[in-house]
Amino acid sequence: MGENQYQPFRFSFNRFFRVDFQVSRAISGGSHRRQVILESTFVVLLVAAAFVLRLWGLSKMHFWDEASYLQNAEVICCGKTNFSELDFRAPLLSLIFAADFLLWHNIYAADIVTALLNALGPALLYVSGRMVVGRMPAAIGSLLLAVSPFFVGVFPTGFASDMTGNSLLSDSPALTIILLAFWLLLRALRHQSDLRFACAGLTLALAVLMRFASLSSIGVLSLLVFGADRWWRAALACGAGFFAGMGPYVLWSRVRYDGFFETFRSGWEYFQGTRESLLFYLKNFGNIFSWITLAGLALWIGRWALDRWKRKRDDPRANLAERELEERPRGLEAFLWLWAAILLVFFSVLGHQEPRYVMPVAPPLFLLAGSGLSVLLRGRQTSARRVAGTVLLVGALAYTFLPVRQRFKSPFVNYRISEEMQVSDFLNRNVPPGTVLYSNFNYSLFGYYTNLPVYELPETGPALYDALNHLPDDGILIAYRKEEIVPDPRPEWLNSNPHFRRFREFPSLVLYEYRASAGR
User: Fold this and answer.
1) 333 or 311, which is more confident?
2) How far apart are CA 106 and CA 77, in angstroms?
3) pLDDT tens digits for 472-497?
4) Cβ(300)–Cβ(364) under 8 Å?
5) What is the C-alpha separation between 68 and 73, in angstroms, rounded?
6) Is the dihedral of CA 490, 420, 417, 359 positive or negative?
């Protein structure tokens, strides 16, 4: 495909999906240099602030899913064989951890690289967003992603959620890769070539390999190829890049698990859980995306309605081209609404909802909110109104970001250890190598913190008790006493069973020694 840097392009399937990527040549060399310096400074400070916020509280203590990615990394780089979840978890985050461990085999290395990956997301939102909504709206949107409490990992009282910004989960890194793919697609549409679309497709594949649920996001982003001059050729190039990225993994899945998509199927089964209300994300919208995002979206809608009213009031003989240029939603703003709506519906109808699952909705929502909030800074206002609008916007952002200060109330390095770490240390010192650990809860933690083989039991119900009656080998059963979380196995059942003997008690769990030959 030929270069067409200064030519606008149109989406063929809807006249509203029009983006003008014309580059103004009227800017002087000095002004351009100053603009580049200002933008570069903003991006560097943005990444630095996001990185520090996500790194603060560096810890060796991690929890269930985090330990799964760490354990998979140990399997990849160190040949650890006592436990693995590579059969149903997306592999890319564990591959990154494995490469990191080859340089520095320490859990802090995983903390640092994850914080850096997550901190790059706001910068990518800015560089892609400025091509869609302009520099100021993109700057506001990127600040929302960088400093909003939920995305940093600070939650309101009573709001149950997994940690996000500083956790070793794949949600935030996947969001960063989705934003990289978005930027590459926009760049490919500005400078159209097969190679650029192929690179975008490859990045879309990486987003899926980071988190399987990213398939919903790449399905929406793939619509952007219809904006190319020859969309069919762009689609072929993008598809080739995607299959080049996914090919080695699905082949590995076929060899290892006897199915090209066996890991995807297993991952989907794991993704299921307790069904929440269809309105779960709408009810928690303010806690996840903050009230200022709602205000920005309301301002965007108000501006759009006002523009329509003004257009109807104008002289019908006015120049049609000028009226189309003023039309809202303009460019990819309509696409942003489509992006947000499709993903919100998708995650709402899933069998299991958690607040962090809906994080991929953030890019379009934050850019639209930034576009709406930028109305307060519009240049056509008087100087007094612009100053008042600036003060109002800065104050609103400061109030929104104020809870983040809680992050700095804790020390930079958190030296606490969890009970599972204490139990694992006891087992490593007091149990013979090769002893099997049986667990129906937090099994990935014991797989990571010990070198003992871990046997995963059904979580609860008759299936668990049937498994306990037919354990394959002698070993140690880890039985939790948190009835509100792990009701089974019941202590009275274990205490009355001759095959189980209390071995060691901890505050939240009991270790039972299992002997298949006991009671005979």
Assistant:
1) 333
2) 13
3) 999 999 999 888 788 999 999 999 99
4) no
5) 9
6) negative
